[in-house]
Design brief:
By secondary structure, the chain is an alpha/beta fold. 31% of the residues lie in helices and 22% in strands. The protein is built from 10 helices and 14 strands. It has helices at 20-24, 33-44, 61-64, 98-111, 145-148, 172-183, 207-217, 235-240, 252-257, 269-280, and strands at 2-3, 15-18, 48-52, 72-75, 80-83, 89-93, 116-121, 124-127, 160-166, 188-191, 197-201, 225-229, 243-246, 260-261. A 9-stranded mixed beta sheet has the order 1-14-13-12-2-3-4-5-6. Strands 8-7-9-11-10 form a 5-stranded antiparallel beta sheet, with helices on one face. Helix 9 links the parallel strand 13 (243-246) and strand 14 (260-261). The longest helix has 14 residues, at 98-111. The chain is globular. The model has no long low-confidence stretch (mean pLDDT 93). Keywords: Hydrolase. GO terms for molecular function: hydrolase activity.
C-alpha cells in the first residue's frame, strides 16, 4: 500500500475508471474546479474516463456536463451501461432475474426481519411503504416487493437492475455479511451507503465485470487501467485494475483491495492522481 505521493502507476494509462459518491464527488455532491480540469486534461491527453457507479442512469446529472469522448457510464454497480451523450439511454443491461429476486427477498425476510425493499428497474425505482425516504421517486409504485417483482407472464416488464434492502437495526457490515451468507449463491450482494442498505444484482454482476467487458471491446488491458473507489461495491474493480486507489475516506475493504491510497474526496484525491499520471507521461 502506498500514498498518492508515490503511486504505483501503469507504464501506459489508457483508461481511468472512477466511482462517483465518496470518490470523485465531494460530500455536497459537486465536482471541484480542480477535478473538472483534471478530467478534461485526461481526455485531451487521450485517456478515456469511465464513470463507474452504483447510481442509476437517471442520477448521472451530477457529471453529465463533464462528459468527454465516448460518454459512456457504467451504472447500477455494473447492471447497466448508459450513453450520457443520449440523456442516459441504456445501451446494455445485465438484469437480475425476477424469480431470483423473489427468492432473495424471501430469504432476507426470514434471515433479517424488519428488512424493507425497493426495486430498481431499467425504467425507475419502486419501493415498499416502509422503505426509508432516501431518493424516492414521486411517480413510483408503492407496494410490497413481491408485488413489485410479479409478472403476469414470464419476460414481461422492465428488466430488474437491482433490489435494494434496508435494515433499521443491523450495522451495515453485519447486514452485508448476513445477506451474502444467506443469499450470495443467488445474486451479487454489496453496499455503498453508510447505512444498512444493500444493493443486490444478478449473479456475477459487478462494476469490475462490466468494466472488464468495456475495456476488452476497446482493446484495453487491466494493466492499462487506473481505478478509484471508496466502498465495498468498488472492491472488485480496485482489485481488477492494474493500478487502483482507495480514497482517504474509504472503507477498510476498499483500502485492502487497492494498490494505493490517495487523498479524500473532499481533498480532490482523484485529481491529485490524474495530475501525476499526466505529469509522468
Amino acid at each position: 500500500m502506498t500514498s498518492a505521493i508515490d503511486p504505483p502507476l501503469p507504464a501506459v494509462t489508457r483508461l481511468i475508471a472512477t466511482d462517483l459518491d465518496g470518490t470523485l464527488l465531494r460530500d455536497d455532491k459537486t465536482l471541484s474546479d480542480r477535478t473538472i480540469a483534471a478530467l478534461a486534461a485526461a481526455e485531451e491527453a487521450g485517456i478515456e474516463v469511465f464513470f463507474v457507479t452504483g447510481r442509476p442512469a437517471r442520477w448521472m446529472d451530477v457529471v453529465s456536463a463533464h462528459v468527454h469522448g465516448h460518454g459512456m457510464a457504467i451504472c447500477a454497480n455494473g447492471a447497466a451501461v448508459a450513453d450520457l451523450h443520449a440523456d442516459g439511454r441504456l445501451v446494455e443491461v445485465r438484469p437480475l432475474e425476477r424469480a431470483a429476486a423473489l427468492d432473495v427477498v424471501r430469504i432476507l425476510r426470514d434471515a433479517a426481519p424488519s428488512t424493507s425493499f425497493a426495486v430498481e428497474l431499467a425504467t425507475g425505482i419502486h419501493y415498499e411503504p416502509s422503505y426509508p425516504p432516501f431518493h424516492l421517486d414521486p411517480g413510483a409504485t408503492v407496494a410490497v416487493a413481491e408485488k413489485l417483482l410479479h409478472e403476469e407472464r414470464p419476460g414481461v416488464g422492465a428488466p430488474v437492475l437491482k433490489v435494494l434492502a434496508h435494515h433499521p437495526e443491523l450495522t451495515p457490515d453485519d447486514f452485508l455479511a448476513l445477506a451474502r451468507e444467506a443469499a450470495g449463491g443467488l445474486a451479487s450482494v454489496t453496499r455503498s451507503s453508510p447505512t444498512a442498505l444493500l444493493e443486490i444484482s444478478g449473479p456475477g454482476v459487478s462494476k469490475a465485470g462490466t468494466l472488464a467487458a468495456c475495456c476488452a471491446e476497446r482493446g484495453i488491458a487491466p494493466a492499462e487501467v487506473v481505478a478509484f473507489g471508496d466502498m465495498p461495491n468498488d472492491v472488485e474493480m480496485l482489485s481488477w485494475a492494474g493500478a487502483s486507489f482507495a480514497m482517504g475516506n474509504a472503507h477498510p475493504a476498499a483500502v485492502a483491495a487497492a494498490t494505493g491510497v490517495t487523498l479524500t474526496n473532499n481533498e480532490d484525491g482523484v485529481a491529485v492522481v490524474i495530475e501525476r499520471i499526466l505529469a509522468e507521461r
